[in-house]
Pyridoxal 5'-phosphate synthase subunit PdxT (Marisediminicola antarctica), 211 residues
Amino acid sequence: MSPTSPHRTASPNVAGRPARVGVLALQGDFREHLAVLASLGADARPVRRASELDELDGLVIPGGESTVMDKLSRAFGIAGPLKAAIASGLPVYGTCAGLIMLADRVSNRIAGQQTLGGVDITVQRNAFGSQNESFEVDLDIPELGAVPVHAVFIRAPVIDQYGPAVTPLAALPDGRVVAASQGNLLVTSFHPEIMGDTRFHAYFLAGLHRS
Ligand SMILES: NC(=O)CC[C@H](N)C(=O)O
């Protein structure tokens, strides 16, 4: 946990009770997200069924494998209701594979791969190739304060193009965008849930007040 988080003390309450934040728990590192959200005071719960979406204030889509998450979300019948919830304003934060799931376009998707969409971005999966699949870098993210975010990338995607409604939040030194928001949606290519820095989750929780 970062000792410098400006949002750390922000209350995660919505309507006088802890924010109910689901984590899509079909595949990937959902447990890590649940732990971070609970540590920030949210009522964090795994979500696998469409009916579990109803009472949420927000949802996190974890890292993992977007092609598998896509197949499972359709097989579990949650993909359609989740798309509808996103369209009607449910705040959703996607990390890595979760970013891919929220992207309107995937330039190198595998045959038949679908996304939920919602963010007007074109992403490239596995953008760093096999030689450098995982790496760590400090990113300046003014929105989260003066202290850089130490970001962990694991077979990560990048955002190659974004539309006018998208706000880029962070870029690599070469300019490629790796965090962004659009309305109720927040995406990062990297994995704050394993970085020991709760600022992105706190930022997401703080945004639930505004929605
Ligand atoms: N760490 C991750 O979530 C990797 C994402 C993965 N490469 C995918 O395409 O879904």
